[in-house]
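Appendix B, Record 12. Input sequence as logged:
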Amino acid sequence: MKKASQNPDEPTISSPVSTQKPKEVSEQSREQQLRLAGMLILGADELAQQAREVKRKREQEVVELHSGFRITIGEINAIVSGRHSDYLPMFPNNISFFSEIARLSEVKFDPTEYIKPAFVGKIVVEVVYGRFDKSVLPALRALNPAYTNGIRPQKLYHYLTVEGLALLEQYRDEAIEVMESCSSMYEFRRKLFQQYGVPYQIEAFK
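Logged structural output:
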């Protein structure tokens, strides 16, 4: 066995052991590792259950619109779409919705004109959009806010889903059917209220 040199000018041979301390794992990395390990341990059923719970909580989140009306996402996501869609007209001239309103109304107007009296729009909201769940109309108005002159950039139904459009078409056609059996706007409103429970105070329209 060779002895180490006693000569102070000659370097001493030592064993190749590193004196550097091992690097510590950061707290963030440790959390990520633990999270990954937890995900690997969880079975597919548990992950699916967690996803359903996240979706449920998301749908229960309350959204407060500019008007102050409060709704949950779950209440409107089946009817209202956050994206504008270019649908075909839902109140075209070949459907007698506006001509029936003109016939029953005391204020006469041309039902084929694109710009109609303001009260016509109120009737549409009342007898068609008013039949949706109470959360739908405020959501549609929030997605499609009116200009200062009261005109909205898009039609409200452009923000309905396919399911919502089907309901709008149903409510529109039912309103036409009732109007065709009436001789006055008051009679129409009274019958619509009796048949479909349209939410307005019928006594106000006598």
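The helical segments are 27-41, 44-60, 73-76, 97-104, 118-127, 136-143, 162-179, 185-196.
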